[in-house]
Amino acid sequence: MENKRNFKEIIADVEAFIFDVDGVMTDGKIIPIEGGDFIRCYYAKDGYALAYAVKHGCNVCVISGGFGNNLESRMRRLGIEHRYLGCMDKIAALNDFAAKTGVNLKNTIYMGDDIPDLECMRMVGIPVAPADACSEVLDTELYISEYNGGAGAVRDIIEQVLRVQGKWALDYMGVVAADANETASR
Questions:
Q1: Are 28 and 113 in contact (CB under 8 A)?
Q2: pLDDT 10s digit of each residue in the chain, 186 long?
Q3: Partner of 82 for a Cys bridge, out of 31, 34, 61, 117, CB 3.0 to 4.6 A?
Q4: Strand (E) or helix (H) holding 15
Q5: What is the β-pairing status of strands 126-129 and 143-144?
Q6: Which residues contact 119 (CB under 8 A, 6 or more apart)?
Q7: What is d(CA 83, CA 48) in angstroms, rounded to the nearest whole number?
Q8: How far is CA 99 from CA 104, 147, 156, in A?
Q9: Contact 165, 12 (CB under 8 A)
Q10: Among 66, 54, 44, CA closest to 16
């Protein structure tokens, strides 16, 4: 008989978080604006958790078909170094991230919500999804957040992992965006 580990035991070994953007960090709505960029609405608690994870040394990566200066700026302000935006080959991006960081994909979380995320989710050991992901994604997940994309799903998985690893709420100082650090030091 195989000894099955529960979800909390599995996430104790997480080495990296990889997230899609539209439908995961947002509710999937985008507003095109002049110049070819988009306006997206982000959930502040998701952003805090992302910046907190980066601040505490977690490998965080974004792989998204989404693009635009606003998106790039948001990821940079959160401190996310590994960004694959406007990405049409998510598998190549996943492999590049793993090669650059040396993370074991078996101990990596990938949170996606739609068909373009499926192959990457099959390549990692811990595929997760927001509650409102498409049915094909929901059928492949190890964990489905109780929260929708853009409404706490990102915070949910980061907080769970960092709590299990003893890294959550280590300090009560706010997380300052990367650009704000530069401004504050001037």
A1: yes
A2: 456 789 999 999 999 999 999 999 999 999 999 999 999 999 999 999 999 999 999 999 999 999 999 999 999 999 999 999 999 999 999 999 999 999 999 999 999 999 999 999 999 999 999 999 999 999 988 999 999 999 999 999 999 999 999 999 887 766 655 554 444 443
A3: 61
A4: none
A5: parallel
A6: 90, 91
A7: 18
A8: 9, 31, 27
A9: yes
A10: 54
Secondary structure string (H, E, C) spanning 102-163: CCCHHHEEEECCCHHHHHHHHHCCEEEECCCCCHHHHCCCCEECCCCCCCCHHHHHHHHHHH
Beta bridge pairs of residue 110: 18, 127
The first and second tokens of residue 168, run together, are 């959550």
The position carrying tokens 């998510």 is 90
DSSP 8-state assignment for residue 6: P
